[in-house]
Amino acid sequence: MSLVLAAMLLLTTGCLYTDANIRVTEDDRVSGRVIVGQQPEEENDQGPQLRVPDSLLGRARVQRWADEGYVGSELLFNDLSFTDFRQLTQFATDAPGSFDLRFSRAGDIVSLSGRADLRNVPDGSTVTLAVSFPSAITSTNGELTTNRSVTWTPSPGDLTSIRAETSFTDPNTRSFAGWTGLMIAMSVAAAVIVGALAWFNRDRSPKPRDLVH
Questions:
Q1: What DSSP line would sit under 128-193, residue for residue?
Q2: pTM (global) more than 0.85
Q3: How far is the C-alpha of 61 from the C-alpha of 92, rounded, in Å?
Q4: Taking all residues of the chain, what is their mean pLDDT, rounded to a whole number?
Q5: pLDDT digits (tens, 9 = 90+) for 33-52
Q6: DSSP 75-139
Q7: What is the domain partition of the chain in residue ranges?
Q8: How far apart are the C-alpha atoms of 63 and 51, rounded to whole Å?
Q9: Which pLDDT band holds residue 10 (cuts at 50, 70, 90)?
């Protein structure tokens, strides 16, 4: 079991509704929203309740959600690192079924990989996962909605792989390049200043040949 966005929603009775939207920024940060709902089976049924690891409190929170006959919870998370997101997805429960997702970087290549295990999810359930990247997606097994966004709609009862890949500059490399450029600029500026000071402070006293008429 893994991925809080699905682990608590996948119960064995009642139709389920899941809508997950995840955004990746050029700084390798992950934000998004996950809604998990279920048709209530009794009057006080609150539906599936998502939770957040204590270590991520402040950057992720859960609130109640209800719409069109479904009740459940909504998970909001912001500015998570790839490692933070992985930790969020590993916050497991005892409910059957799961989404197991991870983002990773190799040089300038950023990949999303994982799977949706909905083999214990009842027929009639709706599950949607949408992910957007800051650059064009170069390969995926999902459905492209734009050149930077992809959606999966895994079917109840199936085990579905999830894969997407894109390319953009490593923010650590970008920061180093920016720092290097700044240092070069500062060095050039310092050289200009030193040269200017040398010019203005040069010896202007008359030379012997200047005194000959």
A1: EEEEE-SS-EEEESSEEEETTEEEE-PPTT-EEEEEEEEE---HHHHHHHHHHHHHHHHHHHHHHH
A2: no
A3: 16
A4: 81
A5: 999 888 888 888 888 888 89
A6: EEEEEE-HHHHHHHHT---SSS-EEEEEEEEETTEEEEEEEEE-TTSPTT-EEEEEEE-SS-EEE
A7: 4-167, 171-211
A8: 10
A9: very low
